[in-house]
Structures are given as C-alpha cells and as structure tokens.
Design a protein that fits this description.
137 residues, alpha+beta, six-stranded antiparallel beta barrel, 2 helices
Length: 137
C-alpha cells in the first residue's frame, strides 16, 4: 500500500491559546494563511519533523482551522505529539498531513471537546500502528 503525505507545512512553533494544555492535550501551534491552504479544515493524522533537532520525527494528531469551540486568535494548525515532553516555541518544523480523520466541530463544552480529542488521539495512534512503514512506502 502506497502512502503519500496529503500536504506539508513548514514554519516556526508559535505560542497558542494554551487551551490544549489545560485539557491534558498540549499542542505545538503553527500559523498558517487560510487563503493559501490546500486542505479542508479538520483533524488529521500527522507528524512533525524537528528541523533543528536532527530532523527527528514525532507522530501526532493535528487540528487545522479556526477552533470554533474556543474561538480566540487567528486560524491555526495545532498538533498534539504523542509521548512528547519539552518546549518547541520558536523551533523550525515541518508538518506532514497523512490521513484525514474528520471535519472540525463545535462542542457544547470543553469536556465534550476533551473527550473527542482523546478519541482522535486513539484513532491517529491506530493509523500509525496500521501503517508502520508509512515513511518508506
């Protein structure tokens, strides 16, 4: 099975609203221009390449869009990295989108959003388990 990235985005990690952190799902945020996007907003299986750290690859789940449940600030790309500890602010990174999971949604509460985020994390982890050679295919 041939797996190709749906899209790539390079940029520097910026400070976000820190909502994910308060929900136990910290994210690295990258600014993006919604006028130049080539994929629809939503949740994706993705990875992040640390360009300044030997091109280390970290797997995760990504949300691209206007974060409608907590609509503060500009549209953003937010990626939660599995099992990652540390700060990435100011780091140059490349994000690769591998698989679309679902459209962006509005939730009635932060708890409802947190529960869905946990499901998205499980779904993304399962995708990586099902595609162990995704980088070499």
């Amino acid at each position: 099975m041939d797996v190709q990235a749906l899209a790539e985005l390079e940029g520097k990690v910026i400070t976000g609203n820190r909502v994910g952190r308060t929900l136990g799902v910290p994210t690295a945020n990258i600014a993006y221009d919604p006028e130049k996007k080539n994929l629809r907003d939503g949740v994706y299986v993705a990875d992040l390449v640390l360009l300044e750290r030997g091109k280390k690859v970290c797997q995760g789940v990504l949300n691209q869009g206007s974060h409608p449940t907590v609509p503060h600030g500009e549209p953003a790309v937010e990626i939660h990295l599995f099992d990652f500890q540390g700060l990435l602010y100011g780091q140059s990174v490349r994000i690769r989108y591998w698989h679309f999971l679902r459209d962006e949604m509005t939730y009635t509460s932060r708890e409802e959003m947190r529960i869905q985020m946990q499901k998205d994390i499980q779904d993304a982890r399962q995708w990586f388990i099902n595609h162990p050679d995704y980088l070499s295919e």
